[in-house]
Amino acid sequence: MPHIDVPDAFLIELPDGWGSTSVDGREYTLSSGDESGLRINIVVYQARTKKDALPEVITAAVREWAKGVGMQNSESLAVLTVAGDTPKAFATIHGDRRDVLVGFFYFKKSFVIAAGTAPSDDHDGFKRVERMLWSIEAA
After folding, report:
1. Of 88, 94, 99, 116, which sees the most CB atoms within 10 A?
2. Residue 69: left (phi > 0), alpha (psi -120 to 50), or beta?
């Protein structure tokens, strides 16, 4: 299966038919290549401190990101923080036309934000982007 491997950042597998583009090796767009409109945008930043990876700080960062993209009542957004070697956080934002799953990944040498989108009425498509975001690993 093809994949994107960004040194010191992330690794993600691409399902059959998916394509990717990159801007300056820092921003990536993955798309399903069909009419479903499934898409994942990934941005790589410099590493954050260990303090930034605390669950309450991650939750605040996800809520601030959601507010920045126009989500009303972002303070009420439920954020799932995942324990393990790599601090991560995920939140689902339901919209009128599109649903978004945002993931924050605190790797040793980079900080990655990934946002997967699917039409609101495409639950199977949303599950596809959800599985892809959950599979992101450190490179």
Report:
1. 116
2. alpha
